[in-house]
Amino acid sequence: MTDILLTGQRAVVTGASSGIGAATARALASAGAAVVLTYRSSEDEAETVAEEARRDGAEVHAVQADISKPEDCARLFDEADRLLGGVDILVANAGVQKDAAFAELTLKDWQTVLDVNLTGQFLCAQEAVRRFRDQGIVETSAARGKIVFTSSVHQGIPWAGHANYATAKGGLKLLMQSMAQELSREKIRVNAVAPGAIKTDINKDVWQDDEAEKDLLKLIPYGRVGVPDDVARAVAWLVSDAADYVVGTTLFIDGGMMLYPSFRDNG
Ligand code: BGC
What we know:
The chain is an alpha/beta fold. The chain is 42% helix and 14% strand. It has a single domain, classed as Rossmann fold (3-Layer(aba) Sandwich), CATH 3.40.50.720. The protein has a seven-stranded parallel β-sheet with strand order 3-2-1-4-5-6-7, with helices on both faces. Strand 4, helix 4 (107-135) and strand 5 (145-150) form a beta-alpha-beta unit. The termini are far apart. Beta-D-glucopyranose is lined by residues 97, 152-154, 195-197, 202-203. Beta-D-glucopyranose binds at residues 97, 152-154, 195-197, 202-203.
């Protein structure tokens, strides 16, 4: 097994004050990357993640940004330029859930989820691509730049009570693929990870409740709920040269959730 090496590379990880983003910022830093991690409002948590990520000696900064706003995305990448001297990797991870039965879903909650989970990813990716182009290819990476989106199994699995979330993730799938098709000839690699149920704040109501967790496990053939490091390790690999020929792919990290286990003894 090749050790993942990101020495000399500079990464932006959005939505990294907790959960998958936090684990990813730590994983990239421990592989040798310099990291700017973002948070929207949880400054103390983000600073703690940055401190932990610095333990292996990497340069890590926490920067506030609401990535659904174009001016914040531009400022974020200016900051990354100033602090790290450029950007080679974007992990566009920030995401929210605002759940409601379809007829009760407010326009505000529809819009917020689309703004953060889809438009925000687009805005950050656009900033990253423009900067990759200006920068040219750096010695420390085979590709000119790498982008990984955090999608979800719900880019493919419809989700009652979560129409806004599933719509955003479904859109993200085609955003990722369209970008990969357009940009790979410039040696910009665009991919996604699609986590299933991972123990984070977003779904703690489910995995912290024994009965609800038991029901959830029926959907996971591998028999456990995932943890943020399950995803972070995959992201570190995807952005490394070890995955240099991986282009336009969604890597599902879901304990087999996409295998529709309810069909195992039915259908
Ligand atoms: C959602 C979680 C959910 C998982 C599996 C994720 O994208 O954010 O809340 O547990 O999908 O349904």
